[in-house]
From TrEMBL:
One of its GO terms (biological process) is response to antibiotic. This is Transport permease protein. Its main location: membrane. GO terms for cellular component: ATP-binding cassette (ABC) transporter complex. The chain crosses the membrane at residues 24-45, 57-83, 104-126, 138-164, 171-190, 228-250. Coiled coil: none annotated. InterPro entries: ABC2_TM (IPR013525), ABC2_TM_bact-type (IPR047817), ABC_2_transport (IPR000412), Nod_factor_ABC_transporter (IPR051784).
Amino acid sequence: MTAAVIHSYHMALRDLRAFVRQPFYLVATLVQPVIWLLLFGKLFAPLMETTHTTDSYIGFLTPGVVAMTALFASGWSGMVFVVEMEQGTLNRLLVTPVRRGALITGRVIHQALSVTLQSLIILAIALATGARFRGGPLIMLVFLACVALITVAFASLSNALGLLTRSQESVISIAQFLVLPLAFLSATFVPRRVMPGWMDAVAGGNPVNWLVEIGRETLYDGVDWGFVLARAAGLLVVALVCAWLSTLAFRAYQKQV
């Protein structure tokens, strides 16, 4: 167990060093969420606030933007495995003493840390533009932990797709096919009470919506902890299932090389 933890740490550190060497990548990945937050927030704020849906649409929108950022960032994770397979790097790693699980775990840890950093930047931008998070530091920490969970889930799923398809085009296509419907079939842009009945029903079982609803609890003084913990538990189960699928995919890959 100790060796697996140490190896996972070093594999995560390897990816984080590559991430630090490309600061432009961080800036580029923040362009889209900033557009959503500032342009969508300003565009729809008059409509949402005059209908008494929310006092601050920027604050209301922020958890959804964080969730969408986590989805888009983690959805591309499997492409790294495809590139490493094409370059032969993954096969070379398989003949080293590195624990096999660490090859997956390290990448997922790196993905979770980088998305958490992006989430903190988005939250800081939201604060600077008028959002107020009155729930306190504890619910904010829980929200960030849940952001990490959904990142682990979708990064693991993307990794599994990369290992099974061995195609960048397939990973991109499937990721986009999953990400956009999951984002729009949630309360990212509007409250569930104003959604059509069928969309509300789908949102109830959508992990992305669970994360958004946890994030909305950061906006209010009274946090419903039963509500939050139930959805956090659901995200944990989804993350564990996706991690298991990623492990199965990695074993399948090992049998073929």
